[in-house]
Amino acid sequence: MIKDEKLYGYRGLALEALKRIGAEVGDLIRIVKNGQVYEGILIPRSEYGDDKHIVIKLKSGYNIGVRITPETRIEKIGKGEKPAFAPPPLPEQKTNLPKVSIISTGGTIASRVDYRTGAVRPALTASDLYSIVPELSQIAQIDTQILFSIFSENITPKHWSEMARAVTAQIEAGADGIVIAHGTDTMGYSAAALSFALQNLPVPVVFVGAQRSADRPSSDAATNLIGAV
């Protein structure tokens, strides 16, 4: 599947049709098919969806999928707003606590729900996570770094090398422990790769993820992050 962040989950005929009109997830589009007109916000597709449907959120709040044919007319009629997150201020650091570095790579733990489209997007940095889990300031001196912000299914061996270099740099800078925020889908692969790349380390390196995004009331992100630190 083509992993296009602007048209996440789309491929084949549907992807090409959306690219032709310059549409991105979140944009308002109009689809005309067999005399019927459908207008709504373009939302991401499921990873296992086919390549012939475009999914939009109607004004009613319902999502519909429209099968695309060569005769289907698609127009972009409005530009969508990019989702944004305003984190609370960072908690005050205590200098007598051990130093822990949180490295963010993306995934559900570093994502939030865009309630306009219903999609989960990687939108939180390591610093954002620290600000919304102030309990961490009672456990350690936290240093945060955003290495990349992608879903874990897009992680490649190149990213493993970047993680290894980032961990090494943090250890050399004096960190007493490293926490890597990572998507759960391929966390095991990344952890295995780093276990071979980084051996006989003087400090622990912990991977942590979540099943629900950090902005949801039912999220396990905060408890998992506290446990990892």
Task: Characterise this structure.
- The chain is of the alpha/beta class.
- It has two domains: 5-78, SH3 type barrels (Roll), CATH 2.30.30.520; 99-228, Rossmann fold (3-Layer(aba) Sandwich).
- The chain contains five helices and eleven strands.
- The strands form three sheets. It has a five-stranded antiparallel beta sheet with strand order 4-3-2-1-5.
- A hairpin with a 4-residue loop joins strand 7 (111-114) and strand 8.
- Helix 3 (157-172) crosses helix 4.
- The radius of gyration is 20 Å and the shape is elongated.
- It starts with 11 loop residues before the first helix and ends with a helix.
- The model has no long low-confidence stretch (mean pLDDT 83).
Q: How many helix segments? A: 5
Shape: elongated
Which topology of the largest domain does CATH recognise? Answer: Rossmann fold
What structural class is derived from the secondary structure elements?
Answer: alpha/beta
Query: SSE string, helix = H, strand = E?
Result: HEEEEEEEEHEHEHEH
CATH superfamily of the largest domain: L-asparaginase, N-terminal domain
Q: Mean pLDDT score, rounded?
A: 83
The CATH architecture term of the largest domain is: 3-Layer(aba) Sandwich
Q: In CATH's first tier, which class of the largest domain applies?
A: Alpha Beta
Uncertain stretches:
none
In what range is the share of β-strand residues?
A: 25-35%
Largest sheet composition = 5 strands, antiparallel
Radius of gyration: 20 Å
Oligomer: single chain
